[in-house]
Here is the input.
Amino acid sequence: MPDSTEYETLKAAVRPVIARASPPSPDFIRTTIGQFRAIPSLTVSDDDAERLAREIESQLDIRMTLGASVHDEGFVEWYPTAKAGIEPYYWDRYSQLLEEQDFPPDVIAGLDVVTDRITGYLNNPRAEAAWDRRGMVVGHVQSGKTANYTGVICKAADAGYKLIVVIAGIHNNLRNQTQRRIDEGFVGRDSGKPNKPFIGVSRFAAAAARTPITLTNATMDFRSTIAEAAGMEIGALNVPMVLVIKKNTKTLQNLIAWLRAHNMGWAQSLVDAPMLLIDDEADNASVNTSADPNKATRINALIREMLNLFSKKCYVGYTATPFANIFIDPDSADDMLQSDLYPRDFIVTLDAPDNYFGASRIFGGDIGDEVLRDITDNADDLPLVHKITQVIPALPESLKEAVRSFILARAIRIIRGHGNKHSSMLVNASRFTNVQKQLRNLIHDYVGRLSRAGRHEGAKPELEALRNEHIGALRQTWEREYSHLGHEWRDIQDHLLSASAPIQVVEVNSASSGSLAYEAHEELGLQVIAVGGFSLSRGLTLEGLTISYFLRNSMMYDTLLQMGRWFGYRPGYEDLCRIWMPPEARGWYEHISESIEELRDELMRMQRANLTPRDFGLRVRAHPDTLIVTARNKMRSAQAVPVVIGLSGRFIETYALYSDTVRSAVNRAAAIQLVEQASSSLGHDGTAGEWADRHRVWSGVDHTIIEAFIRSFNNNDRSIATQSEPVAAFIEKVALDGHDLWDVAVVGLADASAKLDDDLGVRCQRRTGYLEEGKKDLVVVGTKNRVSSRGVEKIGISKVEREKVEAGRRAENLPDKDYRLVRSRPLLVIQPVILTKANSTAPITEKPLISWGISFPHAEGSPPTVTYAVTGLWWRQYIGDDEGDEEIDADED
Here is the structure.
C-alpha cells in the first residue's frame, strides 16, 4: 500500500508546475515528477510515481464546454470594457485556490469565461440610475453550481457590489455547508471561530483591509442582535459584505427589518448600495405557488420585499431543475411586491466538465449496467408506499447488499491509498423521520455485525474465515460487484475491519442530532452512512458518495433529480460507485435525462436565433413533459387544469396500456383497420423496400386515416401525453400547415424465431411489463416507460438524409432526436408487443398488446399547440404526493 502522505505531498508539489505547461506532454509530466522525487521528503516508489503521472494526465485531460444563454432585448454589454478598470483581487485568489484544489486548467478557464458572462448580465454597479435585473443559471445536480456562483460573487465584488446575499436552501445543514464554501472561496476567514483564522483564498492574498465582512457564520444564521451590535451601514463600507442565510421566513424577516432600520435614509428612501442576491435552489420555496392569484407565498413575498428595499439590485436564481421558475408568469406583479422572480433578463446554462458523473452518463450513456442495481425485494419489509406508522421489521436483502458494497468499496479505497478520504453512503427510502430512525437503527446494527466479523475473522485463513456467515456474504458481494477490478480477496479481507469500524450511521433530518461534519474530519476522513429524506435531497453534498440506496415513488422531475445526490465527481473511485433503485425509477431517470438535454439543446438553438428568456419560457411550457412538471399548486383540486402543449419536434408514445380483453381487442381492431386503409389507399401491403426484413412501411398516407386511428384507440390515462383528442387535433392542425401526408410503420423483428402477429404480419418484440398495484388492467411497458427501440425514428427517412445525420458518427449510438431533425413527414409507428413480468417468460396477455408512437418533424416559427386536460385525481393516482416530509413542516430556527 502506498504511503498516502508522501504521495499526496508529491502530488501537491508537482501539479501546479505541470499544469502551467500548455499542454504538458507525457514526458514532461514524468520528468517533473522525477525531479521532485529527488527531494528526500517526496520519495515514492516507481509504481506510485507512474500512478501519479497517469492521475495527473487524466485530470489535465478533463474538458468543459461553455453552455448557452439568452438575454433580454436591448441588453448592452458593459463588462468587457469595464474589466480594464477593475482589479480582479477576489477573482485572482479564488482561481488560485481552484488550481490548488486540483481543478483542471480547462475547467478553470471555462469557469472564468462563463462567470464573466454571468457577471456581464448583471448591471454595472457603478451605474447611477436605478436598475433591477432578474436572471437564472441552470446547472446540473451536484455539478459545481456553488463553485460557479462563488466565482460570480468574487467578480461582482471586484466590480463594486457592496452587499451580496446568498439564500442557501431551507435547512441548516445546507446553509452551514454553503457558508463554509463562501468563507473558503471569498471571505478567506473561518467565520465560525472566534479568532477567525485565515483560510482558503487568504493563502494567496490576505490584506486585512480588503477582507469581506460577514454577519453570518458556519454555525449561525443571520441574527438582528449581532448585526445591530456590529453597527454597520452598507453604503459606508469600503469592502463588500456577504450574508449566507437560510430560506426561512424568520431569517428573511430579521434581515429585512435590519435593512430598514439601519440602511434606509431618514425619509425611508431605498438603499442606494448595489446589491446582488444569489438564490440557491431557486425552484424550491422561492416560487409563488399560492392558489390565490392576489396573494404570494411567504418566502416568495419576503424575497421580493427585500429586493424592493434597493434601488440597484440583481436577483440570480441557481438551480438544476428550472421547470417551476419557467412557469412563473413573466408579467405577474402587484403594487407592493412589484415584479415576481421570473428570469426575464437572462438565462444561462452551465455545461458540466466531461468527468461529471451525471444523469446522461448513468442513465443515458454506457455505464448504467455497471452502476445501477434493481430493488425488487422491498415489499415485505420496506414497502415503497407506506404511512408514518410503518414498522420496519428487517432490512431488505438489497439494502444489506448495498451496505456490504459500501464496506468493500471502503476496503478497496484503503488499498488504493484513499483511506483518509471521506466516504459516504446514502439511504433515501422514506419521507417520514420515524421510519428513517428505524432504518438508521437497523443499519447501525448490521454494520456492527459486519465489523465484528471483520475483527474476529478477518485475520484468519480465507477458508476458515468464510465459514462465518457475514464474511461469506461479503465475499459473495465482492464477487458480484468488485472482483473484476484487480484486487485479491485476501487483501480485501485483511482490510474489512479498518473499512467498517470507522463507519457512523446517522439520520439527517430536522428531528435528529446527526450531522455530516466533514470539515471536522479533514485529517482522517469521515466514513458515514446517511439515512434521511428531504434533507438529503436539496443541494447538500455527500462527500465521497459511493453507494446510494434510493427507494422513493415520486415521478416529479425536480424531486427525482434533486434526490440524485449520487451525481457529481468521483475521482479515483468512480468504478466503485453503485446505485440501488426500483426499476421504474431507473426508467424515469432515463426519460428525465433525455428531456433535460432537449431543453438545453432548445436553449442553444434559441441563442443562435437571438431569442429572449420570455421566448424560452413559452417553449418550455409547450413541451410535452410539462405535463409531469406542472406546478403542484395547480393540482390541489379535482378540477381539470388545461395544459397547452406543442408536439413539434417531439416523439410521443403509449407506454401504459390496458390489458383487459375488451379494450385491448378494440385497440387491435383499430390497428388492423389502419393497415387495411393504408394498403388500400396506396396499393401495396407495405412489405417491400429496404425495411422489408423487419417492418411494414407505407409513405404518403393521408392524415385522415391517422386521425381516425388515434380517435378509435383506447388510450390509458397514465399515458397522458397520448390523450386521443388533443393528439388528433394536433394532427389536424399540422395538416393545414402542409404535413397532410404521413409515414406509417408496423414495427417488428427480423428474428425468424420471434412470434408472428398473424393480424399485423410482423414478428413481435418482447418487453417487460409492470402491473401497477391498485391500478386495475394497467400494464406499464418496460422500466423506461418506453416501447420503441433506438433507431425506430429512422424509418421513412431517405438514405441520403440518414447519411447526413450519421456523418462521422456511430449510427448505433445516435439518439432518435437527431433523425427527427431531418424528418420531412410525420411518422406513426404501430408496435405489437408481447409483455412478460420481470424474470418470467410467460406472456401477461393472451395476444400481443398494441402500442403506437408518433414522431413529429420540427416546425419553424410558431408551431401549433393543443390543450391537454390534467386533473387532481390523475395527479394523485399516477404522480402521487411526495411533499409533506415531517422534516419540512416547521421552520427551523
About this structure: The longest strand covers residues 827-836. The chain has a mean pLDDT of 85. The longest helix spans residues 583-608. The chain has five domains: 4-60, 126-289+297-349, 359-581, 622-646+866-881, 649-864.
